[in-house]
Amino acid sequence: MDKPKVVLGVSGGIAAYKACELLRRLTESGHDVRVVPTDSALQFVGAATWSALSGNPVSTEVWDSVHEVPHVRIGQHADLVIVAPATADMLAKAAHGLADDLLTNTLLTARCPVVFAPAMHTEMWEHPATQENVATLRRRGALVIDPAVGRLTGVDTGKGRFPDPVEIFEFARRVLARGERAAVQDLAGRHVVISAGGTREPLDPVRFLGNRSSGKQGYALARTAVARGARVTLLSANAALPDPAGVDVVHVGTAVELREAVIRAATGADVVVMAAAVADFRPETYATGKIKKKDGHEPEPIFLVRNPDILAEISADRSRPGQVVVGFAAETDDVLANGRKKLARKGCDLLVVNEVGERKTFGSEENEAVLLGADGSETPVPYGPKEVLSDTIWDVVARLVSAGDTLEQERIYNGQ
């Protein structure tokens, strides 16, 4: 099979050097990458570097190899175009259809998915002109990844940092995997809230009650939602994973902290997905000093109290009409029967049920599950990558959100 053809556009920002890592991951994973830098980008990383890492010639001018008509052919033949980093200048040119070099010409001729990974100072990112340009590109179907928050050039810190190249690669991989469906941004304009990982309930300063959840399924849900156009807030409970590109991440520790974060983030959200493994109980008391082992004495018993049932609470008290709530159920036996009981008890719209155990699901890159709908539907998802399960979940959720919009419009029309 032909290798997927990827165009990596590089514009003139200091983060251009980080694009080398993105290029390496793309080539090593079997993609045919053509790097198209701007003249300004070559001030940061030279053409020889891009050519050596990609194995393809590098040019910035439409006049090079003119008999091959590169300003048209490169974009026409691409399966994906990524501009990383995308400066404020590049976003403006792309939004207004300017074509003054090879990269901007390529953007005009590309009919494949186009991804922009912006990197700039906070003031530039937040400027109304840049925000309007981003909105224009998104409205036309381009995928613009929100920049990360962190250290910028010099001593400045804020939103505008180039996202982790590994996460941009994962994002690109999801876009390519969706193929023609990548152009269908069925979550565009939607705000989704996702919890991931496992809560920890402290016993003393060094010990806690926890679980085996890695957070990988929740993070896969976040990546796939961004690739489908959603604005994503990820509530991460003790997951030792890099922040997904384009996702607002809030880190929490305990079930009580997660509840507070969910209620705060869910206000006005279109979808809430509770993928985190939330501890059912927490210690009644917290020892301010390390609990010591005393020779000849049995340990003192640890009394537990119930944690709040976050899924049941947000299902019963939706923050807006039509809000869709999705829960997860990890079961060890009678999976479907227990799942149906939990679905009825929690009151959510969709419950993702999967069998777990010491060698199943936890920490794995794969998963299998059955999606149980409140309408009685069952959608089995066979064993495979967690991103595939995530996309199936979003397929169902997108239909539920659309149906909710229709009901709300009818309600408003009837004056209810």
UniProtKB/TrEMBL annotation:
Pathway: Cofactor biosynthesis; coenzyme A biosynthesis; CoA from (R)-pantothenate: step 2/5; Cofactor biosynthesis; coenzyme A biosynthesis; CoA from (R)-pantothenate: step 3/5. The gene is coaBC. The keyword Magnesium applies. Its cofactor is Mg(2+); FMN. Keywords: Decarboxylase, Flavoprotein, FMN, Ligase, Lyase, Magnesium, Metal-binding, Multifunctional enzyme. Residues 1-191 are annotated as: Phosphopantothenoylcysteine decarboxylase. GO terms for molecular function: FMN binding; metal ion binding; phosphopantothenate--cysteine ligase activity; phosphopantothenoylcysteine decarboxylase activity. Its EC number is 4.1.1.36, 6.3.2.5. It holds the Pfam family DFP. It catalyses: N-[(R)-4-phosphopantothenoyl]-L-cysteine + H(+) = (R)-4'-phosphopantetheine + CO2; (R)-4'-phosphopantothenate + L-cysteine + CTP = N-[(R)-4-phosphopantothenoyl]-L-cysteine + CMP + diphosphate + H(+). This is Coenzyme A biosynthesis bifunctional protein CoaBC.
